[in-house]
Amino acid sequence: MLAIDAAAYRSPWRRTHPAVKGALCGGLLVCALSLPVWPGAALTTVAALGLAFGPARVNPRTFARVAAPALVFILTGAATLLVSVGGESAPVAWDPHGWHRALEISGRASAALWCQLLFAFTTPLAELLPRLSRIGVPSALVEVVALIYRMVFVTLDTAHRIGTGQAGRLGYASRRAWIRSVGSLGGTLFLRSYDRAQRMQRGLECRGYTGELTVLLEEIPLRWRALSAAAAVPLTVAAATLCYGVLL
């Protein structure tokens, strides 16, 4: 199981209705993307991280490890805005106004990232997907996502087993052996995944699959008080940002 899924199943917010967490994280996401970077994105970051490390009790080390690749991507993209290409003086030159755009984009993107991770660390995907059909998402799309989600774990487990076997036979002892082992791992993983997908399709057809997977879903009551409290957080962030702009 991936670290983010394990954290979601251990989260104290797991028994909270996904609509409540969707209102909270979705509202904060809208604030991060639509409000001014200062102080909108900053307040959104404070709210999302405060809820994640406070009531949601997300492990900071796991949170940082999951967020690191996305942050590197954001900073790499923002760094390209610091230079201009195709100028008259030089092909690549420093853009004096680029730092403002870089800060704006990195601020919005990082704030949006915290909102999405807060939702992911508190809501197991297996409990979210069946509820998407109830709000109008096409069943075929939900089932494809659910099957891919389950196959990801099977594929990762297969890759881990193959890699462990190769390492036990000194398959990664040298650079040449490493290249050969990685190529063999990729080819074997593709063939096994394709074969497993075919067997799963035949199994579904033998069980009378008609285009819809019916699964048991634990009913979680939707409490309007919790929904109102969740919506109050992004509304407070938006109100504080607008008040700051008016006072200035």
Q: How are the strands ordered across the major sheet?
A: 1-2
Describe the largest sheet: 2 strands, antiparallel
What percent of residues adopt helix (DSSP H or I)?
over 70%
Dominant shape: globular
Q: Count up the domains.
A: 2
Percent of sequence in beta strands: under 5%
Radius of gyration, in Å, reads 23 Å
Mean of residue pLDDT values: 84
Describe the protein's architecture and organization.
The protein is mostly helical and 248 residues long. It folds into two domains: 150 residues, no CATH class; 76 residues, no CATH class. 72% of the residues lie in helices and 2% in strands. The chain has a two-stranded antiparallel ribbon with strand order 1-2. The radius of gyration is 23 Å and the shape is globular. The model has no long low-confidence stretch (mean pLDDT 84).
In short:
72% of the residues lie in helices and 2% in strands. The protein has helices at residues 3-10, 18-34, 37-53, 60-79, 98-120, 125-132, 139-168, 175-206, 224-247, and strands at residues 83-85, 92-94.
Features:
2 domains; two-stranded antiparallel ribbon; cell membrane; Cobalt_transport_CbiQ; membrane
